[in-house]
Please model this.
Amino acid sequence: MDWSSASAIATAVRDGQSARDVLEAALGRIAERNPDLNAFTAVLTERARKKAVAIDEARQGGEPLGALAGVPFAVKNLFDIQGLATLAGSKINRDRAPARQDATLIKRLEAAGAILVGALNMGEYAYDFTGENEHYGPSRNPHDRTRMTGGSSGGSAAAVAGGLVPLALGSDTNGSIRVPSSFCGIFGLKPTYGRLSRAHTFPFVASLDHVGPFARTTLDLALAYDAMQGYDADDPVCVDRGQEPATPQLPRGTQGLRIAVAGGYFEKGPLPQPDEAVARVAKALGIKRQVEIPEAERARSAAYVITAAEGAACHLDRLRTRAHDFGNASRDRLLAGAMVPASLVIQAQKFRRHFRTQMLKLFEKVDAIIAPATAYVAPAIGQQTFPLAGQDVPLRPIIGAYTQPFSFIGLPVVAVPIPLEPLPIAVQVIAAPWREDLALRIAHALEQKGVAAAPRPRES
Amino acid sequence: MTQKRRPKRPPRTTRTAKKPLRSGPQAAAIDRKPPRNPLDDYIGAAAIALDLNIEPAWLPAVRENLRVILHLGASVSKFQLRDDTEPAPIFQA
Model:
């Protein structure tokens, strides 16, 4: 079951395959590949074995098994795991008391039969687009170990793209699910703001934080998403909409959907790969229409300002008392963020309202928008600049340039990997609020047409 | 008729417009230092107000990060919004 999908594993386990055997194979892959990929910061061998045995006993007892029966999964280490300190990629959080309970989404995946096997590396406190970490080392891209995974959910993407687990959870404040999906060539879902519970996860920017799944197929992504839906009073922004399952919608295809490609700001990329990926998608879906995202660049700027200020507020006390224990890059940005005048932050929040109104008007005319996820394929680990028009320009600040405008107003987005050679890159399928089903349908259609796929790394 | 052109004033900056505070060897030592970035005064004051310690080695990176944030914030502030536009600190899709 080495590269099996979550859905294939669950089907096999329901049909009699031993969940314990599936788990031991996954633990073996983690032991073999993690030293290279540095995706895991903790492996929960005994806990996972107990769960696998319980699933096998349930099957033998004739009990019904869940949609994710026996599926090994792992979570970014900002999710609370009972008995572990929630690191959130930091050194400081090692001193936290062990979590007293699992995060809500872990409970929900386990209720569907999935088996938690570990915690995953990430950028410090999620303020990161690279997947690098000064305390725990960089997660490495399974397609090329010298390259970034993208961040901040870098370990999540490495674990799924590298075949260690078929399913992982991450968080996305400005692009931290979509950027690693792009660099590592896997599917990722950033749901609508307020859709999936963030309860018992370590926060970064409360008004921008989302959580969501990574997988190698759209069916797995939809199965995980459906298993995690539902109101949770423990997350104050979680909206009570009831279940809106996406999995049954996948086979409906794109017939009748109004899909457009984002122009303007999203066409200004310095390198050809994003345009090539978007062109393949447009051709496959017969998209002729282009739309302008109004004030996309300003939306990205406003998200940047809010992130700096809210992120700093989250860490203000730690900046006072333990500034030396932050990584350099995090500390310097958070200190700067603490000094942003309130007037600029409030203006950015007012602009957010305006931008939301404009985007909702746009969604009266289209059902979904296609845009690149990143301006380039995975850069080298440690790379600081890239050549543009004869100059070296800073690389890191603009990694999230295409993702930030959409998370800024909480739109649902599926990152869809396009297997370019030698490295993959993703496009974003963006839908109106609460229409994850449409974005997943489009992603599924692209997968069915052979345009989108999570390529298996050559080195594996 | 020809007009006499006024001699141009040298461009004013906060530092060149001021007289040296001291004279003698101490002043020469001060003059040799690179000009202080105007943001540094703000960073110093904000650090005091917020009870933060900014070590000298951290200052260039903090300054550069703050410069970028302020630049992006200024581009947002330039955008004309109605006075009654409500902020959206918690976005409700």
